[in-house]
Amino acid sequence: MTEGRGKRGQTVVRCVEVTKRFGSFEALRKVSVEVRAGEVVCIIGPSGGGKSTFLRTLNGLESIEEGEIHVLDVRLPAGKREIERLRREVGMVFQSFNLFLHMSVRANLTLAPTTALGLSKAEANERAKRLLTRVGIEEQIDKYPGQLSGGQQQRVAIARALAMEPKIMLFDEPTSSLDPEMVNEVLDVIRGLAESGMTMLVVTHEMGFAREVADRVLFITDGQILVDAPPAEFFGRPTDERQAAFLSKIL
Amino acid sequence: MRFETHQLAQHYPLLFEGLRITLTICALSLAFGIVIGLVACFGKLRERGIAYRIAVIYIDFFRTIPEVVLIFWVYSCLPLMLSLRISAEASGVIALTLFASAYLAEIFRAGILAVPRGQIEAALALGVPSLHIWIRVILQPAIRRMMPALVSFLTELIKATSLLSAIGVAEMAYQASVLGSKTFAYVEFLSAIGVLYFIIIFPLSIYARRAERRLVSRTAN
Ligand SMILES: Nc1ncnc2c1ncn2[C@@H]1O[C@H](COP(=O)(O)OP(=O)(O)O)[C@@H](O)[C@H]1O
Ligand SMILES: [Mg+2]
Fold first, then answer.
1. Model pLDDT for residues A178-198, shown as the tens digit of each residue
2. Domain A1-89+170-251 falls in which CATH fold?
3. Whether the predicted pLDDT of A7 surpasses 60
4. What does the angle CA A108 – CA A114 – CA A116 come to, to the nearest 5 degrees?
5. What residues contact B100, with CB distance under 8 A and at least 6 apart?
6. Is residue B56 part of a domain?
7. Could you give the CA distance from residue B78 to residue B68 in angstroms, rounded to a whole number?
8. Nearest to A215 by CA among A54, A15, A71, A36
9. How do beta strands A199-203 and A216-221 pair?
10. Which one of the ligands is nearest to A43 CA?
11. CB contact under 8 A, A98 and B137
12. In a domain, B6, yes or no
């Protein structure tokens, strides 16, 4: 299944010996990894292991102390302008949605395309409608985030990121703050994106989802990628002690 | 005693002249206070460095000393220090500007800090240019959130202008006490301005209270 997709393109993310520190604490320790266009990479591991930090270094939300990261044609660390340009091509979805609560769903989706891409109001609006249809909530376009359920809010957040037509999508535990009955509506949207060929890195605790959708699964703990394997191998034959312990706890 | 309405009927233009001065001084010190308050606010938001320290000292100092002391100091001491003449009205505007800017800086800062970090990160992650992040994601909700505090500070500022009668600024309270001593109709004039202050300030307080309640109920759900 992993090779069956036949969609491995050129390398779009390349981390070389990346170290990230908060004060003297090393949140990432010499992390090296590559992701190719079209790949779906799921990231799992215990809380505090560095999964969010890793994801956030990829779009410059966290600076790095050592090493370098190549994302598309940008090399990090980089200046403000370069990072801004990079962020327009890398979408991110957060555990806590982070929607703009004082803006309608429509304004949430059109803010970035109009200000960062220079789209006209009408163009951005068309795009917003199309994407809301794609995530199945076109009728909510004039509501405010506070009027929506958690699952709907996260789908708005996904549509908001897609409105920039990114080449890569980063998901940081997109279903972890949802009530159980809403998890699937969000996973379905992410699954659909994967099938459309989007390059994605997804931090998740949904093992069934990872097993089904991922091309590769990374196990991150103590700021290191200890395992990088196709899902069948990852879940079938754990190679690392801590990975095995983690899996036995969570499965 | 009799309530001598004819005294009011005869002298009310002076009370309204006082009211005009009260409102003008309020408007000027509010406008200057907003500008300086913004500077102090952004200084303090830096959280380190020389601008931060100056802002902290400035804000703490002018929030601590009583307004009356500030008014007398600007009126009596500042001209000596700078060896130039400052009119009572200008002294009043300067003193109330110092007072307002220190309070406004803290109101602005609280409003800006209340914008959830996650929303700013989401805007950054989308590649929204910083100017637009400031306007649409930070300031727009921050201004809405600080309206109740701003309006209730405005009521404090209006009340504080009455202290300027101590240095002879011909604002409303001054006019009332001068008219009172001239005509001995103290009760009439002081009651009249009491009512005028009430008419101006009470609606503002009601607005601030309602806006506060709306905010609380909005953030609750
Ligand atoms: N802004 C920060 N300041 C200090 N320490 C941080 C910060 N962000 C994360 N950390 C620390 O880095 C480590 C990794 O955190 P994180 O990447 O959020 O882990 P995960 O997403 O795997 O749960 C944790 O020990 C966390 O406390
Ligand atoms: Mg995390």
1. 999 999 999 999 999 999 999
2. Rossmann fold (3.40.50)
3. no
4. 100
5. B29, B30, B32, B33, B34, B37, B153, B157
6. yes
7. 15
8. A36
9. unpaired
10. 1
11. no
12. no
- Number of folded domains in chain B? 1
Minimal C-alpha gap between B143 and chain A (Å): 11
Per the CB < 8 A criterion, the answer to whether A147 and A162 are in contact is no
Integer Cα distance of B104 and B96 in angstroms: 12
Interface of B with A (CB under 8 A): 116, 118-119, 121-129, 132, 136-137, 140-141, 144, 218, 221
Mean pLDDT of chain A: 95
Residues of chain B with pLDDT below 50 are: 220-221
Q: Does B14 fall in a domain?
A: no
**Which of B112, B126, B216 best tests the A interface by mutation, with the highest count of A CBs <10 A?**
B126
Domain residue spans in chain A?
Answer: 1-89+170-251, 100-165
Boundaries of domain holding B157: 23-220
Structure-block tokens of residue A73: 């044609």
CATH code of B53's domain: 1.10.3720.10
Task: For chain B, say whether A88 makes contact (Cβ under 8 Å).
Answer: yes
Would you mind telling me the total number of residues written for chain B in this entry?
Answer: 221
**Residue B171: inside a domain, yes or no?**
yes
Q: How far apart are the CA of A48 and the centre of ligand 2, in A?
A: 7
